[in-house]
Design brief:
single chain, about 290 residues, alpha+beta, 2 domains, four-stranded antiparallel β-sheet, 6 helices, PH_40, PH domain-containing protein
């Protein structure tokens, strides 16, 4: 009997977040499923692909995920190597154990499963994500592409005025506006350069997270030690909040600053939600200079 990769997901975990991942035998997997706190995890839980579950992966990269379903039942999701998703509703753990045994023995009858016809983004619910965040040049350029375009238009307009017959006062005023815009753009790229080596490892279900200005200064922190988080809005909204940042205040007086160039606004806020998407940490609005993000 082979050892297959088995991992656990709890109700407050996010997509791609698992724990206790290791090779297990059939008997060990059955024991894990039977002792999993299914009843406790049913409370305030949404039935979906990501949720309280035990996921098994075989050597052919096929997955069998046992999760919760309505009315005390269980839902088994089967994902094959071609990203086809199948679903089966089991009335009890005895049925679950039989299907898991068949999966280990490579004789699982998929014909009794209901096939999903929309197969977009399925693997992300089965594969383990790293939850490591580093600033990349591509992300910086993506977030500032519209600003660069406006800057180019400003430059072309300014050049047209300088070489045209535009009255001098208008040329002067436009040049001042253009200079201010270039200064703001420089500030964004300067801060991106200063924070280029920042590292963050954080997920929703794990209270411990890691942050450092570079790989040599990474420290472990605990969400339960956070007093509040102040959100500084930059230019733009949501994921495209250019220049935005967060300042995390801990109960011991320590603070750390995380920019939107490292992790976007919505993703970071999503790390502090419970299983019903309610905030677990207080976020407070703040204001400060665009250039003060170190």
């Amino acid at each position: 009997m082979p050892l297959l990769n088995v991992k656990v997901q709890h109700k407050n975990y996010e997509k791609g977040e698992f724990c206790d991942e290791q090779p297990r035998s059939l008997d060990e997997t059955i024991q894990l499923i039977n002792t999993f706190p299914w009843d406790a995890e049913r409370t305030l839980t949404v039935v979906q692909l990501t949720g309280p579950s035990v996921t098994i992966r075989n050597e052919q990269a096929n997955y069998l995920k046992t999760g919760l379903y309505f009315n005390g039942k269980y839902c088994l999701y089967y994902l094959d190597g071609r990203n086809h998703l199948y679903e089966y509703h089991a009335a009890d753990l005895a049925t679950v154990n039989k299907l898991v045994t068949d999966f280990f023995n490579a004789v699982l009858d998929v014909s009794v499963f209901e096939k999903h016809f929309v197969n977009i983004g399925n693997k992300a619910h089965f594969e383990t994500a790293s939850f490591e965040y580093r600033q990349s040049l591509w992300r910086v350029l993506m977030l500032t592409s519209s600003l660069l375009l406006f800057g180019l238009l400003f430059f072309m307009g300014n050049a047209a005025m300088l070489f045209g017959h535009t009255p001098a006062p208008f040329v002067f005023m436009f040049s001042i506006v253009f200079a201010i815009y270039c200064w703001l753009l420089f500030g964004i790229y300067y801060n991106a350069y200063v924070n280029r080596h920042n590292y963050l490892h954080i997920s929703r279900g794990n209270n411990v997270f890691y942050f450092g200005q570079n790989t040599d200064t990474i420290n472990a922190y605990n969400k339960t030690d956070i007093k509040e988080i102040v959100s500084y809005e930059g230019r733009g909204q949501g994921n495209f909040n250019v220049g935005g940042s967060f300042e995390v205040f801990f109960n011991n007086g320590e603070t750390i600053k995380i920019t939107n160039m490292l992790i976007n606004n919505l993703d970071f806020r999503g790390k502090f939600l419970d299983s019903m998407d309610n905030p677990t940490i207080r976020f407070m609005p703040g204001r400060k200079s665009l250039f003060n993000m170190k």
